[in-house]
Write a structure and sequence with these properties.
It is a single chain. The chain has ten helices and seven strands. Strands 1-4-3-5 form a four-stranded mixed beta sheet. A three-stranded mixed beta sheet has the order 2-7-6. α3 packs antiparallel against α5.
Length: about 220
């Protein structure tokens, strides 16, 4: 489990935090400010621990092992550590226009490179017009829009949001190429649930999914 102590070990930690303090962060002045600052710092923490896969605490696997479509990505996540090492975001937004960092992977160098890239975006660009500040997700989306042909960064459609899973006409067929489901703050609110009951909601949904789809695939 990542924590602040991992990020503190990065040689750029102090200067990175200093730069973050000058950026309009989503939730500035409130409880969400610290949360979104930590979301930036987790990229440094991942570089310190040697890279690999990072999953949000509200992400849950649907299959074990992952679907075959994800096997190559999972197997090769850590093999390249040069300046162009591939960084992968495994969840697309519902409109497929950007990525949601609920599950990401890459080498230590890839994590470090993305940490610097999203910081540069937030330092040099005004926040999106429909937002009151920057988050790591908004900065990643900016990168994907402005550098669509960047060979060192990719967005894959291997994680579903809870709302998409709920709205799927046939969830068993829909998730055959999905590895996990993400119970984001937004999706939980949009489906008239409360984030405080998110653990109970996730458990209930996963149990229903396993019961419904056990003949289609091998859910956890």
């Amino acid at each position: 489990v990542l924590n602040l102590q991992h990020a503190l070990q990065h040689p750029r930690y102090q200067s990175y935090v200093q730069s973050l303090s000058t950026i309009p962060i989503v939730g500035k002045g409130g409880r969400n400010q610290e949360y979104n600052e930590y979301c930036f710092l987790r990229y440094l923490a991942m570089a310190v621990v040697g890279g690999g896969f990072m999953a949000d605490y509200d992400l849950f696997p649907l299959h074990s092992p992952p679907p075959s479509s994800t096997t190559t990505t999972f197997a090769n996540a850590n093999t390249d550590d040069d300046d162009d090492a591939l960084f992968t975001v495994h969840q697309k937004t519902k409109n497929k226009a950007g990525g949601i960092p609920s599950l990401c992977s890459g080498s230590a160098r890839a994590w470090e490179r993305i940490a610097e890239a999203i910081l540069r975006v937030a330092l040099s660009q005004p926040p999106p017009t429909d937002s009151k500040g920057w988050s790591d997700m908004l900065a990643l989306m900016y990168l994907s829009r402005t550098l669509p042909n960047n060979s060192s960064q990719q967005i894959r459609d291997e994680v579903t949001g809870y709302k998409e899973l709920r709205e799927a006409p046939d969830p068993c067929v829909y998730t055959q190429s999905k590895w996990a489901v993400h119970f984001s703050h937004f999706d939980v609110h949009e489906t008239n649930n409360t984030i405080w009951l998110r653990p109970e909601l996730a458990l209930s949904v996963l149990q229903q999914y396993a019961s419904l789809c056990q003949s289609h695939q091998s859910p956890v």
